[in-house]
Each structure stands twice: as C-alpha cells, then as structure tokens.
Amino acid sequence: MSVTLSPSPLSLTPLPHAHLCPPMSVLRCLSLPKLRPHPHRRFSIATAVRQDTTVWTPAPLSLVEPAAESLFHVSIDISDSPDLVTSHTCAGQYLQLRVPVSDKPSFLAIASPPSFAAASGTFEFLVKSIAGSTAELLCGLRKGDVVELSQVMGRGFGIDRIDPPDAYPTVLIFATGSGISPIRSLIESGFGASKRSDVRLYYGARNLKRMAYQDRFRDWESSGVKIVPVLSQPDESWTGESGYVQAAFGRAKQIYSPQSVGAVLCGQKQMTEEITSILVADGVSSEKILKNF
C-alpha cells in the first residue's frame, strides 16, 4: 500500500517588519556565521554621519568673472558669517559649496589667504567650469545670487613641516590647471620665501589662455618665488618650458641637498604621483612633500 504525503501549504502572509528583524528561530536554522566588525564599514558610517551633520551657511556672490579659458574668479561675501571667517586658518583648506538648483555639493579649495577673509569678509575661489557639474552652474550665476557653504575643512598644507626657512632653503612648488588656487593662498599667506635661497613654482597649463593669475606673477616673484610656466600645447611664439610639469622639472632638478628640500603639490593626479616619485628617488623625505588632500 502506498501512502502519498501532501505537504501543508506555507503561509505567505508577511510578518510585520520582517525585512528588518526576522524571528530568532529562523536565524538559528540558518546557522549564520558570526559577523566581525570591518574597518571599512566603520569608516563609511562615520563618513555618512559627517555628511548628515554638515552645517550649510547661505552667502551671496560678490563676483563671478572669467579668470582664463574655462576658469572663473568667484568671490563670496561671508561678512555675516564670522564663524566661517575665523575657521579659515591656513593655506590649502577647502569647503563644500551648493547652488540653488542642485543639491550636489562641489569641493572647492580657497584661493585667498586667511588674512584676506579676516580683512574683507570674503572668500575667493578659482573655479574650473566642467560641463554638467555644480561648478558649471556656479560659474553661470551672477553677483547677488545666494549659494550655501559648508564649514571650512582640512588641515591645509602643513607648512610647519618645512620650517624654519634656514633648515629648508629649497621649496619646490608644483601646480596644474585650477590646482594653482590653493597655491595662490600659500604664496600670498607668506611662508618665508624671501628667507629661502631656492623657491620655484612649476605651473602647468595647456597654453597661456588657460593660465590663471598671470597678473599676480610679478608680486609672487617679488616675494621670493621664481615662477616657471610650463605649457603642454604652446603656440609657435612660446620660448619657455613646454611639455608636462614633471618632465620640465626632471630636466632641471638641481637637488643638491635632499634633506633640506620641501615640496608642495596640487593638481592633476598623474603629475603629483610622478613628481613625488622623482623627489623620493632623489632622497627627499616623503614627510616633506605637502599636499592639501
């Protein structure tokens, strides 16, 4: 005699909040392995908390004008936000900015020195307009339009690591494109350039039309910074350095005492990586190669 067993029909009625907290009996049957904490998970949670607690401060634009091809000078009035003014303490710091028509923030390095914010109640930026980005929207705004700024972020370049000037007479500075923005803040903040014997700025751009701050070069040189413009696609009249910044530096390194050399880098990732490799290979301590991110 054969017996046919019919399984009892399973109930498909979902339990309240079953997707959040399954019954313990189910967990026991699954015999799940113990979950161990993972450092990346902890970091992600902390990051999310920081983002959720960002304090946004509205501030009006006081200037939006071309600085070079695809680059814009942007000034923002923060005179009504003393906490923002005092939070900018060193060159290389940055913040997040939001525009009215987009919730996606853009990270921007502050181009003006801290003393400028204290004296004028203004932050200045050099912004590259990239199609489809918040930066492009920002560059399309006008004086009086209101944007939102986060708290000032980062520790800056940490110039104290290459002080005093007589211990680090050589400081090599490298910038490409809009990476010159925080470098301007550094130079105009003053880092004892006139007390050092060899301070060079290798500044790379596609051509002179894309090179911002040319009107400031004379003042920078008078402060003790030798400027070496490097153009990757110059016209026929150009007689200066051409190619990429790292190649131009490689042709004229002149590193005679690597233990007394400091460096500051900001710009294209490939440039910063290759310059770092060149300097370290020549004996410069990686602790003396400063970046703001």
From TrEMBL:
Q: Which Gene3D superfamilies match?
A: Nucleotide-binding domain of ferredoxin-NADP reductase (FNR) module (3.40.50.80)
Q: Which InterPro entries match?
A: FAD-bd_FR_type, FNR_nucleotide-bd, OxRdtase_FAD/NAD-bd, Riboflavin_synthase-like_b-brl
Q: Which Pfam families does this UniProt record tie to the protein?
A: NAD_binding_1
Q: Name one GO molecular function term.
A: oxidoreductase activity
Q: Which CDD domains match?
A: FNR_like (cd00322)
**Residue ranges occupied by any FAD-binding FR-type domain in the UniProt entry:** 54-159
Name this protein carries in UniProt: FAD-binding FR-type domain-containing protein
